[in-house]
Amino acid sequence: MKKHPPRPRHNPQRMCSMCREKMDKRTLTRIVAHPEEGVVVDVTGKKNGRGAYVCHKLACRQKVMTSAVLEQALKTTITAAEKAAITQFWQSTNEPQHVS
Ligand SMILES: [Zn+2]
């Protein structure tokens, strides 16, 4: 019987819209342009709509708010209130993230 070589654990990878680094999906925040709710953080990862990911790095989270990459990725405009809500979400979930 042939032995399979050890396979890396399967972790879905997603790309950060800001730094364009690919990383474990769990370290990224999914932001969705929801048809009814507008641009919101998708905590469950199951919301409908066009999504974009932002990684855990503070630099990305700060830069993404002042750059147009999210709006380009979501193909919509993000209001100041929506940006504030996303920023608040990050502040409330400011747990240390481990990256291997
Ligand atoms: Zn990033």
CATH class: Alpha Beta
Content-based structural category? alpha+beta
Question: Mean pLDDT, rounded to whole units?
Answer: 91
Q: Rounded to an integer, what's the Rg over CA atoms?
A: 15 Å
Tell me what the CATH architecture is: 2-Layer Sandwich
Work out the count of structural domains.
1
How would you explain this protein's 3D organization?
The chain has 3 helices and 5 strands, in the order βββββααα. The N and C termini lie far apart (33 Å). Strand 3 and strand 4 form a beta hairpin. The model has no long low-confidence stretch (mean pLDDT 91). 28% of the residues lie in helices and 21% in strands. A 3-stranded antiparallel beta sheet has the order 4-3-5. Strands 1-2 form a two-stranded antiparallel ribbon. With 100 residues, it is α+β, with helices and mostly antiparallel strands. It has one domain: Hypothetical Cytosolic Protein, Chain: A, CATH 3.30.1230.10. The protein is elongated. Zinc ion binds next to loops. The site of zinc ion (ZN) has 7 residues, from loops.
Features:
100 residues; alpha+beta; Hypothetical Cytosolic Protein, Chain: A; three-stranded antiparallel β-sheet; two-stranded antiparallel ribbon; 3 helices
SSE topology sketch:
Layout (H helix, E strand, L loop, with lengths): L12 E3 L6 E3 L4 E6 L3 E4 L8 E5 L3 H9 L2 H6 L5 H13 L8
Antiparallel strand pairs: 1-2, 3-4, 3-5
The structure holds zinc ion.
Give a brief outline of the structure.
The chain has 100 residues and is an alpha+beta fold. It is 28% helix and 21% strand.
